[in-house]
């Protein structure tokens, strides 16, 4: 087991993690500018890369394995800085050249990789687990949120498409029907425009950080869940909403449909009118219709459980060990 260039036995605490992270990031920056300056690491054992970026620091072989969350900078370069896209191009070109075994967090990410780079690398899908505690435990009401509301949880910015969702909420006229639209999450690029739109749209409540207790309360009291993002590697908030019995409104033809299935309401994320119509449909679902959809939504959650996740990784690593008996080294 290795962490960056250090053996696991060195020991890692909160401060050293920060230092190691900064050193690791600086090494990646230098390697991107001066590929021949920083020597690559070698290993006689198979190496599992839990971040594709680390392949730049290793002599990668087909015996190694790489975990891929998404290829957003390659499939949606307009959402990222050009330098990020350029880095991803270098990383995945090297992966395609060396053809290590690949683990993806969704079928959508696997399909995107194979569409861009072919099917040479052996590929497995291992869904991430959703937090079990999000659907149980203490709840704490959120000040200023009451009555009927739709809920969006996720980083606030351009990628999650809350700007279109806010405009759709206004277009749907749901504020006049007594609804609020509650959005919570950390800020990422594009958040400024979302914040400005929220401030001038009646019925929209943009929350700062919320605790787990407040998040449980929001899930428990929302009428429905909205996430019509432009890009997701997997879509954990949708799975968490399903765990809490909410019917989600999601982006059509995306990984979110892979997560939620046909009982979700899927719309074109690029169309404010389509999102507005989806919000109206979500708000008008009868209790019996919600109950019927919940049956299918809850059945899908087994694929995202911790036992399923652990079994899938155990099988993935066992297959590697059978092909290459020496114990694996892990780069994290």
How would you characterize this protein structure?
- The protein is globular.
- It is built from 12 helices and 13 strands.
- The strands form 3 sheets. It has a 6-stranded parallel sheet, sandwiched between helices. Strands 6-5-4-3-13 form a 5-stranded parallel sheet. It has a two-stranded antiparallel ribbon with strand order 1-2.
- It is of the alpha/beta class.
- α5 packs parallel to α6.
Keywords:
single chain; 332 residues; globular; 13 strands; alpha/beta
Name the overall outline. globular
Q: State the total count of DSSP E strands.
A: 13
* Residues in helix, %: 40-55%
Radius of gyration: 22 Å
Largest sheet: 6 strands, parallel
Secondary structural class: alpha/beta
Segments where pLDDT lies below 50 for 5+ residues? 326-332
Distance between the termini: 9 Å
Give a brief outline of the structure.
The protein is an alpha/beta fold. 42% of the residues lie in helices and 14% in strands.
Write the layout of secondary structure elements.
Elements: E1 2-3, E2 6-7, H1 14-33, E3 47-49, E4 65-68, H2 72-75, H3 82-98, E5 101-104, H4 107-117, E6 123-125, E7 148-153, H5 162-172, E8 179-184, H6 191-199, E9 204-207, H7 212-221, E10 224-227, H8 236-243, E11 248-251, H9 255-260, E12 265-267, H10 272-284, H11 287-299, H12 306-323, E13 329-331
Parallel strand pairs: 3-4, 3-13, 4-5, 5-6, 7-8, 7-10, 8-9, 10-11, 11-12
Antiparallel strand pairs: 1-2
